Structures are given as C-alpha cells and as structure tokens.
Amino acid sequence: MIDEIFTSINKLMPDFKARPQQVEMSRFIHQRLQQSQNRMAVVEAPTGVGKTLAYLSGAIETALNSKKLLVISTATVNLQQQLIQKDLPQFSAALPQPIRFMQIKGRRRYVCPSKLAQLATTPEQQDLTLDVDQKYQQVLRQTQAKNLFQDWDEHRWDGDRDSRTDAIDPALWHEVSTDSEGCAGKSCRYFISCPYYLLRKEMQLAQVVVVNHDLLLSDADLGGGLVLPNPEELILVFDEAHNLPQKALGHAAKALNFVQLYQTVETADSLMKKLPTALAFRQHDFGYMFKEIRQDLPAIINLLQQLLDILGSDATVNEMLEGRISEPRIFWGSPLLNALFIPCQKLLQHANSIYKHFSLIGKWIKEGLEKTQLSNKVGEALLPQVGTVQNIFGYLIDFMALFLDEDKAERPPNVRWLAQEQFAKQQTLVIHAGPMTAAGFLDRSLWQRAYGVVMTSATLRGMGLFQRFRADCGLQRYDEKHFLALPSPFKYQQQAVLKLPMMQYLPNENLPQWQQEVANQLKLIIDIQAATLVLFTSRQVMLQVYKQLPLSLKNLILLQGDQLSPKNMIVKHIQRIEAGRGSIIFGMDRFAEGVDLPGNLCTHVIITKLPFPVFTRPIEQARQEWIIKRGGQPFISLSLPAVSVKLIQACGRLLRKETDSGQITILDRRLLTKNYGKQLLSHLPDYQVITE
After folding, report:
1. What total of structural domains would you count in the chain?
2. Which residues pair with 210 in a beta bridge?
3. What is the Cα–Cα distance from 569 to 562, expressed in whole angstroms?
4. Within 13 Å, how many C-alpha atoms sit on residue 281's CB side?
C-alpha cells in the first residue's frame, strides 16, 4: 500500500517526489506495526525527510485493518494546524478511500453550557464583603458570561475557547468549563448541543485524530479512556518526540498545595450544608457516610496545620521563605521527613475516605438526574463542586503514593522538594514529589498498553546514540531492531558552511570579556541586508551583548522578551525580509528548535555559546547524584548527550529545504580546544567547516 500512496500523491502533486529516506521510514514503521507484539518504532528523521507523510503512510494500513484509532500527538500548535489544514487533507485525497480526521482538545478547552447558563442567568448578589474594585470585576465577569452564552446559544460561537478572537479571563473560563467528574453527561439539559459531546460524537467516526502531548499524557495519567479511547484501541504516533520525556515528567510528578487543599475543604464543607436536602431521595444511604465526612474535614484541617507547623520550625524551610534558597529537597530518612511522615499517613487515610464518599455522591447525583429525582438546576450546580472535591483528594492520594514510597537501594528513588508558589492570588507552600525519570510512567501507562507506538523527531540521538532517549522514555526492553536513524537528504557540504572563529575568551571563564568579543564579532559577521538568527543561552548575556552594539545593528534586531511575542517576532521578521530589508532575531531556547524559516528567511545562524543544560531543579540534581552513586559520570551521561541534541537542533534552523543554503557561526572555541568539543563537532551534520 505504501508504494501506491506515494504514486497517488505524485499524481496529485506533480512537484512531489518521494525521497528514499521517506520510503525507508514508511516501510520500517509498517514492518514494526505488523508484528504480533512489541509494536514499537523509534525513528530519527532529519529535516527534509518528510516524516509526516512517512509515518502516515507507514501506519495507516495497520490502523484501518485492525480498526484502531490512529492518534498523532505533537508538541506545538503550529504542527497540529499544519496536519489538520494541509498534510492530512493531501494524504486523505491520495488514499483509495478518503479517511475521516479531526483535532481533539481537552474537555477544559470547551465551554460547559450548563455552567455558563448558570453564571449568565444568576441574579447579581450584593456581597457586602466585596470592595468597589471587586464588585466592578464581578459585574464585568457576569457581563462577559452573558455575552458568551448569547453567542453560543445563537450559534455565533461553537464553544471552543480557541475559536474566540477576544480574550477570556482565565478565572471566568475555569468557572464555565468542567472536567469529567463535574459533568452530568446525558442527564444535562444541554447534552445534545454540548460542544464537548458533539466532538465526542464526531470522534466515534474518526480514523485519525490529532492531539497534543499534554492531552495524551493527562489521559494516560488518569488511566486512559477519558478523552481518547483506551490505549489498547490506539496506534500512537509521537511527532516531536524529543519533548516527550520532559513533558511526561511533569505529568508523573504530583504536589500538595496547602491553599488549594484549604479551599477544597471549604468547598466540601459548604456542600455538606446542601447535600442532605438535594439527596433526600437517598437519605437511607447517607447517614453514616455524612457522619464520616463531617469527621474527616476538620481532621484534614488539623493535619494540614500540623504539617505547616512542622515545616515552619525547620531551618531550611525558613531559608526558602526568606528567599535565600529555592526548592530545598526533603530526603528520605531526614528529620524533616520523619516528622512529616505520620501526619501524612493520617492525611492519606482521611483523603481516601473523602475521595470514596464524594465519588459515590457524584454517582448518586448523576443517577438522580437520570431518574428525575433531582432537578437539573440543582444537580448541574452541585456536580462541578462535588467533582472538584473528588479530583483534588484523588490527586492528594497520588501525591502521597510518591511522597511516602520508601527509597530502595536497587531503584532510582522518588524526589521530594519544597517550593513557595503563587496560587489563587496567594503565596503558599507546596510539597512536591515525583519520580526521577518518566520512564516507568510511560512504560506503565502507554507502552505496555497501546496497540502500537511510533516515535519520531529530527533529533533523538545524543552523541550519535539513542541511549539517553531510550532510558528517559523507558524503552530499554526494545532492542536495536526497533530503532532507525535516517541519513539527511541535504547535501551539507554544498549547502552550508560552519565557521568557528578562534575566540580569545571562554564564556565559562571570562564572561565580561567574552561578551564584548561576541559583540565585536557580530559587528563583523552580520550582513545587515540579510536574515540572521542569533541564539543565546541566557537573557542576561543577550541584553549585555545587545547594549554593546551600534545603533545601525540595534535598529534591525528583534529582541526576545522586549515587546513582541516570539510568534509576532517571526511575523515581523518575515515582513521585513519580504519587503527586501534586513532583519536580525536575538532569541533563546524558544528559537533554537521548532522555528521554520526556509529560504532567504534565514541565511545565517549564529550560536553564541554551547547550549549546555543547567541542572538546578531538584529532579535533575537527584539524577546526577544517582548516576554518581552507580559509578557513572553525570557530564558524560547527561550533559554531553543533552548539549549534542540542542546543538544539532540549533544548527538545524539554517537548512529547512533541499534548496536552502547559508552559514552557521559558533562563537565558542571549546568546540576546537576541548576533547568533548571535538566529539560534539563530529556528531554534527557534515557541514563544510572553516576555522578562523
């Protein structure tokens, strides 16, 4: 089928010519997905291979024949839009039978008509505790809610937050959207016209859906099957897969947020005043349960206060509160953890009780709505609050599973740390706990369950090896036949020159002198008539270099973090180049990957410094310690593979098409003078290298 698809696309688009690497990638994916088990394909496909068409061609036959939903997950909105608006329509047209495809977003991206109607139609309450500004904000919020409801009710808006051209206050949106626990489902009076359920209905007919990594990982974290079908019914394609380990780590970690828990207990306490009347039809069931909840809620408050007292008497915690240190770790067996342990165990017991009871209350409300034992107005008002209590205490249970899990010598320990954060306009202490890597989470939630998996990106290998990506993603049980690194279709020697000026100073030894030298180099090497991308690893350094440049260059520079957003910087840059003028982007990490400026939109990439990662976060520090404990070297195991990937990505901003050409300049002489620099250089594409 692969050959037929490429032939058909060639007929539809006469300019299209399948590249050998593209066909190889398609066949590799098809072969891996045809296996009876362990259907896993990991492909590094450099820019220019045409990986989107390759994975679509390689996976579609298996998806259609096995009646599995093909889910394409990406890290960026741009790629999702490109898939929906361009790639999938072209691909579908090339198939013997067109396929049905759509984009899926999380439930919270869609308005809940029931909650919106409640807010829009509730009479304004005169709350004497509110000041003039708060009353004004309240009126504004209700006015916007009324406008939103009118637009939705009169079919001028589809209920998708992203389709609004005006800004919606985040606090208001939280009030008028919901999650699964707060939803009345078929019992809701708006069920037939609900934006989310219209989407779900459409998804039942779809054969390919496009999502983002966060949605897919959130669904997996909750056990799967909430937004998407169960993983067993899916073939997953992770495009931009190099982002996956870090994204997954964020979903695997949990936190205990004191302000949030106090607010949730208040919500639960308020509900306890309303529920006996609302659930009168179940009164023979809830007497003992309500008695337990009324004991659990004060116990939760007491235990939270105990935890705060323990934390408040700790010297390290006070150093953090005074701003002298950030994110101190809590070590297993330390006096602080030992003091927290028993109150946390008790908190877990009460959290389990509250979670169990509120799950049942939510079930009763939904049944009451179905059997018309409860009015829609009452049931739909109660469900979101009951769902919030259930969700927050379920999350607390997950946190405790990580926090109270004893460290074992034979496996990487969980990492525990403290932070002071802003939540609901208040400063609060937050206790965090998470695994050292997302490997176990990904393997458990997805790899062991999904029907098939494809992972691809332009850069997956560090120092020429899949080793780090493999470990970070939990792919150790898959041998080399599951991995493929494709050669690039670009002729690097002819298309790009890599210049390495012999800088006098080093950024890690003589920072002020090196910054001045970078500024001097930029004056010499930037062509003010052309399109230049200058990449920095530090905002402070970027500003210092910018200050030392002449006005003639400053007038051409679009500075990240100045006035325009990165997206609008790119728009402005393109406008200048298309108008025949020069333009210079000064950017950081955001511009070192995922930015697509083909042809004359970028003819010179300047990398000021090797992009070594700075491991300052608690999980990163814990990984370094674990590697040392096992006899390894963090620099070789973590830093070098990471900088290798980042450097290849940064250089990759130059050549986006086979007809592109230009120059890369790296202003860091460690590439020439350090042994590791020579290794990094050897794993870059085969550019024409010029040392000066």
Report:
1. 4
2. 72, 103
3. 10
4. 14
Which neighbouring-strand residues pair with 500? Answer: 691
- What pLDDT score does 397 carry? 98
For residue range 250-298, what is the model confidence (pLDDT) as tens digits?
999 999 999 999 999 999 999 999 999 999 888 887 888 999 999 999 9
430 and 457 in a common domain: no
Q: Look up the pTM and report it.
A: 0.90
Q: What is the DSSP letter of 38?
A: -
Q: Is 651 known as a binding-site position?
A: no
pLDDT digits (tens, 9 = 90+) for 584-640: 999 999 899 888 999 999 999 999 999 998 888 999 999 999 999 999 999 999 999
Whether residues 261 and 352 fall in one domain = yes
Residues forming a β-bridge with 584? 532, 557
Residues 399 and 540 grouped into a single domain: no
Question: Do residues 360 and 474 share a domain?
Answer: no
Query: 256 φ, ψ to 5°?
Result: -105, 110
HSE value, Cβ hemisphere, 13 Å, CA-based, for 164: 17
Among 648, 655, 667, 691, which Cα is nearest to 534's?
A: 667
183 is in an annotated binding site: yes
Q: Which residues, in sequence order, are bridge partners of residue 415?
A: 434
In SS3 terms, 346-404 reads as HHHHHHHHHHHHHHHHHHHHHHHHHCCCCCHHHHHHHHHHHHHHHHHHHHHHHHHHHHC
* Cβ atoms of 388 and 174 closer than 8 Å: no
Smallest Cα–Cα separation from 395: which of 179, 212, 106? 179
Cα separations in angstroms, 105 against 55, 80, 109, 210, 422 = 22, 11, 6, 9, 27
DSSP string, 594-614: S----GGG-SEEEE-S-----
Q: Which residues pair with 420 in a beta bridge?
A: 429
**What is the rounded distance in angstroms from the CA atom of residue 426 to the CA atom of residue 431?**
16
- Please give the Cα distance from 574 to 590 (Å, whole number): 17
CB atoms within 10 A of CB 131: 8
Q: 605 near 312, Cβ under 8 Å? A: no
- Which tens digit of pLDDT belongs to each residue from 205-230? 999 999 999 999 999 998 988 889 99
Cα gap 175→116, rounded to integer Å:
8
Q: Which residues of 604-625 are buried (b: 16+ CB within 10 A; e: fewer)?
A: bbbbbbbbbeeeeebbbbbbbb
- For 117, 173, 210, 313, the CA distances from 321, given in Å and listed in that order, are 42, 32, 43, 12
Rounded to whole angstroms, the Cα distance separating 280 from 277 reads 5
- Looking up residue 570, the CATH number of its domain turns out to be 3.40.50.300
156 and 90 together in one domain: no
As a whole number of angstroms, the distance between CA 536 and CA 606 comes to: 9
Backbone dihedral region of 387: left (phi > 0), alpha (psi from -120 to 50 degrees) or beta? alpha
End-to-end CA distance of the chain: 52
Estimate to the nearest angstrom the gap between the alpha carbon of 317 and the chain centroid. Answer: 30
Average pLDDT, the chain: 93
Q: Which domain holds residue 466?
A: 1-99+207-250+451-485
